[in-house]
Amino acid sequence: MTLTGVVDDNLELARTIGMRLRVPFASHVDELLQNLAMPPEAALVAVPHSEYLSIVSSLAAARIHVIKEKPYAVSVDEARKLKKIVSSAGISLQVTLQRRFDPVYVNFSRLLSRISRIHAVEARYTMNVERLDEGWRASQLKAGGGALLDLGYHYVDLIVWYLGLPDLVSCQMAAGNRPGQDYDTEDTAFVQFAFKSADLSTNVMGSLVVSRVYPYHDESLQIYGTAGSVGVTRDQCELRSPDGTVLECLSPGGSRSQSLMDQLNTFVLNIRSDSINGTISSSYLEHIAFIDAAYRSAGMGAPASPHDSMHMLEG
Protein backbone atom coordinates (compact mmCIF):
# COMPACT_ATOMS: atom_id res chain seq x y z
CA MET A 1 0.00 0.00 0.00
CA THR A 2 1.34 3.42 -0.99
CA LEU A 3 -0.04 6.73 0.25
CA THR A 4 -0.82 9.03 -2.68
CA GLY A 5 -2.41 12.05 -0.99
CA VAL A 6 -4.18 13.52 2.06
CA VAL A 7 -7.29 15.67 2.48
CA ASP A 8 -8.53 17.67 5.44
CA ASP A 9 -10.90 20.62 5.54
CA ASN A 10 -8.25 22.34 7.68
CA LEU A 11 -5.85 23.27 4.87
CA GLU A 12 -2.96 24.04 7.22
CA LEU A 13 -3.26 20.61 8.81
CA ALA A 14 -3.45 18.97 5.39
CA ARG A 15 -0.38 20.97 4.30
CA THR A 16 1.58 19.96 7.43
CA ILE A 17 0.81 16.25 7.01
CA GLY A 18 1.25 16.31 3.24
CA MET A 19 4.66 17.95 3.46
CA ARG A 20 5.78 15.66 6.24
CA LEU A 21 4.77 12.57 4.25
CA ARG A 22 5.80 14.11 0.92
CA VAL A 23 2.45 13.59 -0.78
CA PRO A 24 -0.04 16.00 -2.42
CA PHE A 25 -2.58 17.61 -0.09
CA ALA A 26 -5.86 19.51 -0.40
CA SER A 27 -8.84 20.72 1.62
CA HIS A 28 -11.39 18.90 -0.58
CA VAL A 29 -11.50 15.48 -2.22
CA ASP A 30 -12.36 16.84 -5.68
CA GLU A 31 -9.43 19.26 -5.53
CA LEU A 32 -6.98 16.49 -4.68
CA LEU A 33 -8.29 14.21 -7.45
CA GLN A 34 -7.86 17.00 -10.01
CA ASN A 35 -4.23 17.45 -8.97
CA LEU A 36 -3.22 13.79 -9.07
CA ALA A 37 -1.73 12.33 -12.24
CA MET A 38 -3.54 9.05 -11.49
CA PRO A 39 -6.40 8.47 -9.05
CA PRO A 40 -5.68 6.20 -6.09
CA GLU A 41 -7.04 2.68 -6.04
CA ALA A 42 -8.72 3.23 -2.67
CA ALA A 43 -9.42 5.87 -0.02
CA LEU A 44 -9.64 5.72 3.76
CA VAL A 45 -12.35 8.16 4.90
CA ALA A 46 -12.79 9.39 8.49
CA VAL A 47 -14.98 12.50 8.70
CA PRO A 48 -18.06 13.80 10.56
CA HIS A 49 -21.02 11.59 9.71
CA SER A 50 -22.83 14.29 7.71
CA GLU A 51 -19.98 14.47 5.19
CA TYR A 52 -19.67 10.81 4.19
CA LEU A 53 -22.35 10.75 1.51
CA SER A 54 -20.91 13.56 -0.62
CA ILE A 55 -17.32 12.31 -0.24
CA VAL A 56 -18.20 8.72 -1.13
CA SER A 57 -20.14 10.05 -4.12
CA SER A 58 -17.05 11.90 -5.38
CA LEU A 59 -14.80 8.90 -4.86
CA ALA A 60 -17.26 6.52 -6.50
CA ALA A 61 -17.50 8.80 -9.55
CA ALA A 62 -13.74 8.30 -9.95
CA ARG A 63 -14.11 4.52 -9.40
CA ILE A 64 -12.16 4.66 -6.13
CA HIS A 65 -12.85 1.96 -3.54
CA VAL A 66 -13.70 3.16 -0.01
CA ILE A 67 -12.96 1.97 3.50
CA LYS A 68 -14.69 4.25 5.98
CA GLU A 69 -15.16 4.72 9.68
CA LYS A 70 -18.45 3.60 11.16
CA PRO A 71 -21.35 4.00 10.86
CA TYR A 72 -22.17 2.64 7.43
CA ALA A 73 -24.93 5.28 7.31
CA VAL A 74 -26.92 7.49 9.67
CA SER A 75 -30.36 6.57 8.35
CA VAL A 76 -32.27 4.18 6.13
CA ASP A 77 -32.46 6.85 3.43
CA GLU A 78 -28.70 7.45 3.43
CA ALA A 79 -28.04 3.70 3.49
CA ARG A 80 -30.17 3.24 0.38
CA LYS A 81 -28.35 6.09 -1.39
CA LEU A 82 -24.93 4.63 -0.57
CA LYS A 83 -26.06 1.20 -1.73
CA LYS A 84 -27.12 2.68 -5.09
CA ILE A 85 -23.87 4.65 -5.47
CA VAL A 86 -21.75 1.56 -4.79
CA SER A 87 -23.79 -0.58 -7.19
CA SER A 88 -23.67 1.99 -10.00
CA ALA A 89 -19.92 2.56 -9.68
CA GLY A 90 -19.00 -1.09 -9.12
CA ILE A 91 -16.75 -0.19 -6.22
CA SER A 92 -16.26 -1.76 -2.81
CA LEU A 93 -17.35 0.11 0.32
CA GLN A 94 -16.26 -1.42 3.59
CA VAL A 95 -16.67 -0.17 7.17
CA THR A 96 -13.94 -0.33 9.80
CA LEU A 97 -15.10 -2.87 12.38
CA GLN A 98 -11.86 -3.84 14.05
CA ARG A 99 -13.41 -6.17 16.61
CA ARG A 100 -14.19 -8.61 13.81
CA PHE A 101 -10.43 -8.98 13.33
CA ASP A 102 -9.49 -9.11 17.04
CA PRO A 103 -8.66 -12.67 18.22
CA VAL A 104 -10.60 -12.09 21.47
CA TYR A 105 -13.87 -11.54 19.61
CA VAL A 106 -13.17 -14.23 17.03
CA ASN A 107 -12.63 -16.75 19.85
CA PHE A 108 -15.86 -15.59 21.49
CA SER A 109 -17.73 -16.57 18.34
CA ARG A 110 -16.16 -20.03 18.49
CA LEU A 111 -17.13 -20.57 22.14
CA LEU A 112 -20.80 -19.75 21.56
CA SER A 113 -21.41 -23.26 20.21
CA ARG A 114 -20.46 -24.66 23.63
CA ILE A 115 -23.34 -23.12 25.64
CA SER A 116 -26.24 -24.84 23.84
CA ARG A 117 -29.52 -22.90 23.50
CA ILE A 118 -29.02 -19.16 24.06
CA HIS A 119 -31.64 -17.43 26.20
CA ALA A 120 -30.20 -14.04 27.25
CA VAL A 121 -27.75 -11.36 26.10
CA GLU A 122 -26.29 -8.41 28.02
CA ALA A 123 -24.07 -5.79 26.38
CA ARG A 124 -22.60 -2.58 27.78
CA TYR A 125 -20.45 0.16 26.31
CA THR A 126 -20.07 3.10 28.67
CA MET A 127 -17.51 5.82 29.19
CA ASN A 128 -17.06 9.24 30.77
CA VAL A 129 -16.75 11.99 28.15
CA GLU A 130 -16.12 15.23 30.02
CA ARG A 131 -17.24 17.64 27.29
CA LEU A 132 -20.22 16.57 25.21
CA ASP A 133 -20.73 20.07 23.81
CA GLU A 134 -17.47 20.19 21.86
CA GLY A 135 -16.84 19.04 18.30
CA TRP A 136 -19.21 17.74 15.65
CA ARG A 137 -20.54 14.92 17.86
CA ALA A 138 -22.46 17.55 19.85
CA SER A 139 -24.65 18.31 16.83
CA GLN A 140 -27.49 16.10 15.63
CA LEU A 141 -27.18 17.74 12.21
CA LYS A 142 -23.53 16.70 11.84
CA ALA A 143 -23.53 13.43 13.79
CA GLY A 144 -26.93 12.03 12.82
CA GLY A 145 -27.27 10.54 16.30
CA GLY A 146 -25.51 10.27 19.63
CA ALA A 147 -24.28 7.53 21.90
CA LEU A 148 -26.18 4.72 20.19
CA LEU A 149 -25.12 5.54 16.62
CA ASP A 150 -21.53 6.29 17.63
CA LEU A 151 -20.42 4.13 20.57
CA GLY A 152 -23.25 1.65 20.32
CA TYR A 153 -22.52 0.84 16.68
CA HIS A 154 -19.68 -1.48 17.72
CA TYR A 155 -21.97 -3.54 19.94
CA VAL A 156 -24.83 -3.54 17.48
CA ASP A 157 -22.30 -5.06 15.07
CA LEU A 158 -21.32 -7.75 17.60
CA ILE A 159 -24.96 -8.64 18.27
CA VAL A 160 -25.69 -8.91 14.55
CA TRP A 161 -22.46 -10.83 13.92
CA TYR A 162 -23.04 -13.42 16.63
CA LEU A 163 -26.82 -13.71 16.63
CA GLY A 164 -28.34 -12.04 13.57
CA LEU A 165 -31.01 -9.35 13.39
CA PRO A 166 -33.46 -9.22 16.33
CA ASP A 167 -37.19 -9.48 15.72
CA LEU A 168 -38.14 -6.64 18.06
CA VAL A 169 -36.35 -3.60 19.52
CA SER A 170 -37.47 -1.28 22.31
CA CYS A 171 -35.40 1.78 23.21
CA GLN A 172 -35.32 4.67 25.64
CA MET A 173 -32.88 7.57 25.29
CA ALA A 174 -31.77 10.49 27.42
CA ALA A 175 -29.86 13.71 26.79
CA GLY A 176 -28.82 16.72 28.83
CA ASN A 177 -27.05 14.76 31.55
CA ARG A 178 -24.07 17.12 31.43
CA PRO A 179 -25.56 20.25 33.07
CA GLY A 180 -24.43 23.52 31.54
CA GLN A 181 -23.37 21.89 28.26
CA ASP A 182 -25.24 22.53 25.02
CA TYR A 183 -25.64 19.45 22.78
CA ASP A 184 -28.65 17.85 21.09
CA THR A 185 -27.59 14.21 20.69
CA GLU A 186 -28.48 11.46 23.15
CA ASP A 187 -25.84 10.76 25.78
CA THR A 188 -27.43 7.53 27.04
CA ALA A 189 -29.49 4.77 25.42
CA PHE A 190 -31.09 1.69 26.95
CA VAL A 191 -32.03 -0.85 24.28
CA GLN A 192 -33.95 -4.07 24.78
CA PHE A 193 -34.25 -6.59 21.96
CA ALA A 194 -35.63 -10.06 21.39
CA PHE A 195 -35.23 -12.97 19.00
CA LYS A 196 -38.18 -15.31 18.57
CA SER A 197 -37.75 -19.02 17.90
CA ALA A 198 -39.25 -20.43 14.73
CA ASP A 199 -42.13 -22.04 16.63
CA LEU A 200 -42.55 -18.95 18.90
CA SER A 201 -42.13 -21.20 21.95
CA THR A 202 -39.00 -19.46 23.29
CA ASN A 203 -37.39 -16.05 23.11
CA VAL A 204 -33.83 -14.81 23.41
CA MET A 205 -33.97 -11.64 25.50
CA GLY A 206 -31.27 -8.99 25.20
CA SER A 207 -30.20 -5.61 26.52
CA LEU A 208 -27.67 -3.02 25.41
CA VAL A 209 -26.64 -0.04 27.56
CA VAL A 210 -24.66 2.74 25.90
CA SER A 211 -23.62 5.96 27.61
CA ARG A 212 -21.12 8.79 27.37
CA VAL A 213 -21.84 10.06 30.90
CA TYR A 214 -21.18 7.03 33.10
CA PRO A 215 -18.32 7.47 35.59
CA TYR A 216 -16.40 4.46 34.28
CA HIS A 217 -15.38 2.77 31.05
CA ASP A 218 -17.05 -0.58 30.46
CA GLU A 219 -16.99 -2.69 27.31
CA SER A 220 -18.54 -6.09 27.84
CA LEU A 221 -20.82 -8.66 26.27
CA GLN A 222 -22.32 -11.67 28.04
CA ILE A 223 -24.36 -14.36 26.32
CA TYR A 224 -26.14 -16.97 28.47
CA GLY A 225 -27.14 -20.44 27.34
CA THR A 226 -28.65 -23.54 28.87
CA ALA A 227 -25.18 -25.14 29.13
CA GLY A 228 -23.23 -22.11 30.38
CA SER A 229 -22.23 -18.61 29.36
CA VAL A 230 -19.60 -16.77 27.36
CA GLY A 231 -18.35 -13.29 28.23
CA VAL A 232 -16.00 -10.98 26.35
CA THR A 233 -14.19 -7.72 27.07
CA ARG A 234 -11.46 -5.98 25.09
CA ASP A 235 -8.87 -8.14 26.87
CA GLN A 236 -10.30 -11.63 27.23
CA CYS A 237 -13.18 -14.01 26.72
CA GLU A 238 -14.37 -16.60 29.20
CA LEU A 239 -16.47 -19.74 28.97
CA ARG A 240 -18.32 -20.57 32.20
CA SER A 241 -20.41 -23.52 33.33
CA PRO A 242 -24.03 -22.97 34.45
CA ASP A 243 -22.82 -22.56 38.05
CA GLY A 244 -20.26 -19.90 37.05
CA THR A 245 -17.10 -22.01 37.09
CA VAL A 246 -14.55 -20.76 34.54
CA LEU A 247 -13.98 -23.55 32.04
CA GLU A 248 -11.83 -21.65 29.56
CA CYS A 249 -10.22 -18.21 29.55
CA LEU A 250 -8.60 -16.79 26.43
CA SER A 251 -6.41 -13.69 26.45
CA PRO A 252 -4.75 -13.55 23.02
CA GLY A 253 -1.47 -11.72 22.81
CA GLY A 254 -0.40 -9.22 20.18
CA SER A 255 -1.26 -5.58 19.68
CA ARG A 256 -4.49 -4.03 18.47
CA SER A 257 -2.56 -2.43 15.64
CA GLN A 258 -2.28 -5.92 14.13
CA SER A 259 -6.08 -6.18 14.02
CA LEU A 260 -6.17 -2.89 12.13
CA MET A 261 -3.57 -4.12 9.65
CA ASP A 262 -5.48 -7.39 9.19
CA GLN A 263 -8.59 -5.36 8.41
CA LEU A 264 -6.77 -3.24 5.83
CA ASN A 265 -5.20 -6.31 4.25
CA THR A 266 -8.63 -7.94 3.98
CA PHE A 267 -9.96 -4.78 2.34
CA VAL A 268 -7.15 -4.91 -0.24
CA LEU A 269 -7.74 -8.60 -0.94
CA ASN A 270 -11.47 -8.00 -1.35
CA ILE A 271 -11.17 -5.16 -3.85
CA ARG A 272 -8.54 -6.95 -5.92
CA SER A 273 -10.47 -10.21 -6.04
CA ASP A 274 -13.53 -8.28 -7.28
CA SER A 275 -15.70 -10.67 -5.27
CA ILE A 276 -17.81 -8.05 -3.47
CA ASN A 277 -17.33 -4.96 -5.62
CA GLY A 278 -20.64 -3.26 -6.37
CA THR A 279 -22.38 -4.80 -3.38
CA ILE A 280 -23.01 -3.82 0.24
CA SER A 281 -22.53 -6.34 3.06
CA SER A 282 -25.85 -7.51 4.48
CA SER A 283 -24.34 -6.94 7.93
CA TYR A 284 -24.10 -3.20 7.26
CA LEU A 285 -27.76 -3.12 6.29
CA GLU A 286 -28.66 -5.05 9.45
CA HIS A 287 -26.75 -2.51 11.56
CA ILE A 288 -28.86 0.31 10.17
CA ALA A 289 -32.08 -1.71 10.48
CA PHE A 290 -31.34 -2.36 14.18
CA ILE A 291 -30.40 1.26 14.90
CA ASP A 292 -33.29 2.68 12.89
CA ALA A 293 -35.71 0.50 14.85
CA ALA A 294 -34.17 1.74 18.11
CA TYR A 295 -34.58 5.41 17.17
CA ARG A 296 -38.12 4.78 15.92
CA SER A 297 -38.96 3.02 19.17
CA ALA A 298 -37.56 5.88 21.26
CA GLY A 299 -39.61 8.35 19.22
CA MET A 300 -42.85 6.36 19.39
CA GLY A 301 -42.50 5.11 22.94
CA ALA A 302 -43.27 1.60 21.67
CA PRO A 303 -41.33 -1.41 20.32
CA ALA A 304 -40.33 -1.41 16.63
CA SER A 305 -39.36 -4.13 14.17
CA PRO A 306 -35.86 -4.03 12.60
CA HIS A 307 -37.22 -6.25 9.83
CA ASP A 308 -39.51 -3.42 8.69
CA SER A 309 -36.40 -1.27 8.26
CA MET A 310 -34.60 -4.14 6.55
CA HIS A 311 -37.36 -4.45 3.97
CA MET A 312 -36.91 -0.77 3.06
CA LEU A 313 -33.14 -1.23 2.79
CA GLU A 314 -33.45 -4.24 0.53
CA GLY A 315 -36.11 -2.65 -1.69
Automatic annotation (TrEMBL):
One Pfam match, by short name? GFO_IDH_MocA_C3
The protein's matches in InterPro entries, at most eight in alphabetical order, are given as:
Gfo/Idh/MocA-like_OxRdtase_N, Gfo/Idh/MocA_Oxidoreductases, GFO_IDH_MocA-like_dom, NAD(P)-bd_dom_sf
| One annotated GO molecular function | nucleotide binding
Start and end of every GFO/IDH/MocA-like oxidoreductase domain? Answer: 114-230
Q: Which Gene3D superfamilies match?
A: Dihydrodipicolinate Reductase, domain 2, NAD(P)-binding Rossmann-like Domain
Q: Where is the Gfo/Idh/MocA-like oxidoreductase N-terminal domain?
A: 3-95
> PANTHER family of this UniProt entry?
BILIVERDIN REDUCTASE A
Q: What is this protein called?
A: Dehydrogenase
Source organism phylogeny: Bacteria, Bacillati, Actinomycetota, Actinomycetes, Micromonosporales
